[in-house]
Amino acid sequence: MDSGGISVDFVEFRRLVDAMGLTPEASEEMDRWGHESAPRLKQALLELYTTIADNPDLSAFFDDVEQLSHVRQKQYEHWRTLLSGLFDETYLESAKRIGTVHCSIGLEPHAFLTGYAAVLSALLRDASQLDGGAGRKGHRASQSPDIVIDALTRAALLDIGVALTSYSEAEQSRARLSRLKFSNAFRQAFTHSMSELDTAMGSLNQAAGQLANPDPAEDQGLNAAELAQSVTRSTAAVQVQLDELKSKMNEFLTATGAA
Ligand code: HEM
Known about the structure:
Mean pLDDT: 85
Radius of gyration: 33 Å
CATH architecture of the largest domain: Orthogonal Bundle
Helix content: over 70%
CATH topology of the largest domain: Globin-like
Number of domains: 2
Distance between the termini: 28 Å
Number of strands: 0
Strand content: under 5%
Low-confidence stretches: 1-6
Bound molecules: protoporphyrin IX containing FE
Structural class: mainly alpha
CATH class of the largest domain: Mainly Alpha
CATH superfamily of the largest domain: Globins
């Protein structure tokens, strides 16, 4: 993990794989079983996407049936990569992309997890039917359900961890970008207001000067002195506003880290 962010780099990821107890032997077992369970995976995904299509809140994320089946195929490929137990860069990129893509479309992590649970549960149920002794039809007799279930559980938790970390990172970077855009817009608006205020204050000062020192050639009327006082008061008020605006802008820029 780099020191400033939460992104999972490949070296850190390989450490996670080891810490998760995914040994090469366990991964190999999972890979062997993964090939055999491919039809079950396909079936689980068909069921998941039927559920999604029937749920208006979830189907709203898809433009049409074609996109739905395209995404189902993408998800199938991801599971196959995961079950291969290779945990290489291709796998890591796929897991991270799942986080960023779902974040970008605004799919809540809990909805993602619900879909994940449905597929994982189907796979675990399938693995539990392995018979380490005699073997069941279509499965190798030597495969122990315990080893496969153990590897699958660890792999799935690792996968979820990577996807959600990348989801959260994408969300943070989106928030950072929007803060930056906001502060730039705020700065521009602020600078403009201040320049307007400066101009107004200059005019007021000038008027105040003329009233306080009337030109004898011009008719100043009877209330020139009062007017002068009023203009001076206005000038002071504008100055107060200006100071306040300046301090607010500094506060804002400091708070958003844009200063
Ligand atoms: C209810 C749960 C889910 C919904 C509603 C959902 C929805 C979607 C949608 C709408 C897209 C297309 C995004 C776009 O490109 O505009 C997508 C892409 C994808 N989803 Fe999901 N998803 C769900 C769960 C999952 C799960 C559990 C996985 C796998 C573990 C997964 C894997 C993928 C993959 C691999 C892609 C393609 C990413 C790419 O473009 O490379 N999804 N999903």
